[in-house]
Design goal:
Butyryl-CoA Dehydrogenase, subunit A, domain 3; about 60% helix; Serine Threonine Protein Phosphatase 5, Tetratricopeptide repeat; 27 helices; mainly alpha
């Protein structure tokens, strides 16, 4: 008789003595699948409906004979024994397996989410709380849309979780550092295209109306905050809920501002409007921090807070810096590079910020000095001189490419494929259509590269100050980029056309192959330059909508 006979029955009935006899003879059975569903003895023991004390004793004895990696074995549906214990609601078995293999959850985080979801739906309060506390220690990157959905279900099912300090701290910090989690996007391609179209012409709110799970969690926690009856790390938030003016903004809100989490700030202000009064330890409001980090989405909320903005705008920090001084200081380059590329466009964006804040603050603050005895204009000029130099250097570097293309195009015009007739001096293949394409493409390349060079020369010979970067220089740079691309593309067409002229009768496959090959660098060049071209286009024509947007996101206007 097979010595493993009755092994599964022993596990189902939690009969350790019978199971021990079998394991003494065949210890390797602890890691073998013994059912058609791929279950090991541990899977069966955990799911057994026997007396809970006997089942836990059986599992404990079984774990003593297993290696930690044996707990990673999945059955055919893809479940490990730990998740079965969680779904069943056995906290003791769950902890026994975790002690045996401390990193087991890192291998099956999604399965743990399944167990959390199952526990919530079954009303197993203790197991749901236990699982949530385990998941709470995960990195914020772990929290996918599905994880947030299940967390929201737990939050709705067990509101007492939300009133715990640990939950509030972790959840708010996680959401504050993750702006993308609060912004929903439509997975439909047509919807994405139409959204971009309407957004480009400023005909649609930048925030979709449809809520997501992360947003619902944020709103739920903010609304539950006043129910906290015990001292917490959020004591400095309590006055906000009482609508009182206080000094000292909660660090979590500042974190959201620093990360550019506009939606987080919007939802907080909707529930607690007087949060706009709060200042940090350096005497700066959330709008001062938004200016420092160049987050226009949060700055634009100034247009929606009414007369309160006057108090915010006149505020000066510990170094006596006004909001205009903060624009004059060097920003976080990483943030700027997320929006525009190239030194010239960075300089233009800085000028747009400076002009906007200059217009916004009271006139008497524009020329006031800080503790370093400098005005905002002096700070801006000193800190952005490097951008001016880099912008002009980039222009000189591009001139080298343009000059090279002019040289090649000019030489090609007099070195035609096939040569000339000895007597008439007319090109031999002048009657060929491909030769006509060759000459036209060469002419276009020479013309566009020459125009690009002339614009470059006008940039270098003109006295460009910082304010020329606002509109004049970006417009010239866009012309340069377009003409430079046309000249490169036309030069490639000229090269390909020459092969069609020379091999029109023999090796017809060769010019086709060459045409395909020369098209590759043109396509790559276009793909690489497209983001820069779009940045230039936006800098010229879309920058007027950067501040004071038409659509409101904080307090929407009521329809008549």
């Amino acid at each position: 008789m097979d010595p493993s006979f009755g092994f599964d029955l022993a596990a189902i009935s939690s009969d350790w003595e019978s199971a021990k006899v079998i394991l003494d003879k065949r210890p390797e059975l602890v890691r073998y699948a013994i059912t058609e569903g791929g279950d090991t003895i541990l899977h069966i023991a955990v799911s057994a409906e026997a007396d809970i004390i006997m089942a836990e004793m059986f599992v404990n004895n079984l774990l003593n004979r297993m290696k930690s990696e044996d707990l990673e074995i999945e059955n055919r549906p893809g479940d490990i024994a730990l998740i079965i214990a969680a779904s069943k609601g056995s906290i003791h078995m769950f902890e026994l397996m975790l002690r045996k293999h401390e990193t087991l959850l890192s291998i099956s985080s999604q399965q743990t989410l399944n167990a959390l979801n199952s526990s919530t739906e079954r009303g197993n309060h203790e197991m749901a709380l236990h699982l949530y506390n385990v998941l709470e220690r995960k990195s914020y990157k772990f929290w996918t849309d599905r994880a947030r959905y299940i967390a929201l279900k737990v939050l709705v099912a067990y509101p007492d979780i939300a009133t715990s300090t640990k939950f509030c701290k972790y959840s708010l910090i996680t959401l504050a550092r993750n702006p993308d989690a609060l912004n929903t996007t439509d997975s439909n391609m047509i919807s994405r295209i139409t959204d971009r179209f309407f957004a480009f012409f400023h005909m649609k709110n930048r925030f979709p109306e449809k809520d997501n799970e992360a947003l619902n969690i944020l709103i739920t926690i903010l609304k539950l905050y006043p129910r906290l009856n015990k001292p917490t790390i959020f004591d400095d938030l309590v006055p906000i809920f009482n609508e009182e003016m206080v000094v000292g903004i909660p660090q979590i809100v500042f974190t959201a501002v620093e990360y550019g989490n506009t939606r987080f700030v919007i939802e907080a202000l909707k529930i607690y409007p007087n949060m706009v009064w709060l200042l940090d330890n350096d005497n700066r409001s959330m709008f001062h921090i938004a200016v420092m980090h160049r987050h226009e989405g949060i700055y634009n909320l100034l247009y929606e807070i009414g007369s309160k903005k006057v108090v915010v705008l006149v505020q000066r920090d510990e170094m006596k810096n006004t909001m205009l001084h903060l624009v004059g200081k060097k920003p976080d380059k990483k943030q700027l590079l997320k929006t525009v590329s190239g030194a010239s466009l960075l300089m233009q964006r800085e000028l747009l910020w400076f002009k906007e804040v200059e217009r916004m603050i009271p006139p008497y603050l524009r020329y006031i000095k800080n503790t370093d005895d400098k005005t905002a204009y002096e700070l801006f000029s000193e800190n952005n001189q490097e951008l001016v130099s880099k912008g002009l250097k980039w222009t000189k570097d591009c001139m080298v490419v343009t000059t090279l293309i002019i040289t090649v195009a000019f030489a090609a015009a007099f070195t035609v494929p096939g040569g000339y007739h000895q007597v008439t001096g007319i090109p031999i293949f002048t009657h060929e259509a491909s030769f006509l394409v060759f000459m036209i493409a060469d002419g276009v390349s020479l013309f566009s590269s020459s125009m690009s060079l002339l614009v470059f020369l006008s940039i270098l010979t003109s006295p460009h100050g910082q304010h020329d970067f606002l509109y004049s220089l970006p417009k010239k740079l866009m012309i340069v980029l377009i003409t430079l691309f046309i000249s490169v593309a036309a030069m490639m067409v000229t090269f390909a056309a020459s092969f069609f002229v020379l091999y029109r009768n023999t090796h017809k496959w060769l010019p086709i192959l060459i045409a395909i090959l020369v098209a590759t660098p043109v396509i790559i060049f276009a793909a690489l330059q497209y983001p820069l071209l779009m940045d230039m286009f936006r800098s010229m024509y879309d920058s007027r909508y950067l501040f004071n947007p038409r659509r409101r996101v904080l307090y929407k206007r009521k329809k008549d």
